[in-house]
Amino acid sequence: MHGFKGERVLMRIHIGERDKFDGKPLYQQIIELLRKKKYAGATAFRGIMSFGASSKVHSDRFLELSTDLPIVVECVETEERIKAILPELDNMIGGGLITLERAQVIMYRPHRPEDEEAGN
After folding, report:
1. Residue 104 has pLDDT above 90, yes or no
2. Is the distance from CB of 73 to CB of 96 less than 8 angstroms?
3. Residue ranges of the domains in the chain?
4. Residue 111, pLDDT above cutoff 90
5. What CA–CA distance (Å, rounded) separates 73 from 55?
6. Of all residues in the chain, what percent carry a pLDDT higher than 70?
7. Which of 4, 26, 74, 87 could disulfide-pair with 108, CB 3.0 to 4.6 Å?
8. Neighbouring C-alpha atoms within 13 Å toward the C-beta of 5
């Protein structure tokens, strides 16, 4: 795991909370795909407000729009592995945005058992 340090690529996938793939939330399907293929890790974040190509505002401030809040899925991996998964993601994602940027990984390690026992 410690060999993961160094220059990597940060992929950000911007989608909506209501987006689905095979009847399940798209963000969940993306994370499950990345985990199944043994990518280093992924996190989904729920946003409070956004707009995209359609210029439609998605916000938690308006009750009628709060069921489709923005979701961002992030994954840091090698450039080769990110490029390899893009066609599969393209098939899953209807509308959205995927961005890539260089990232310098300085630490990547699992929690130690003693950290979990101490409640950290």
Report:
1. yes
2. no
3. 2-117
4. no
5. 21
6. 80
7. 4
8. 5
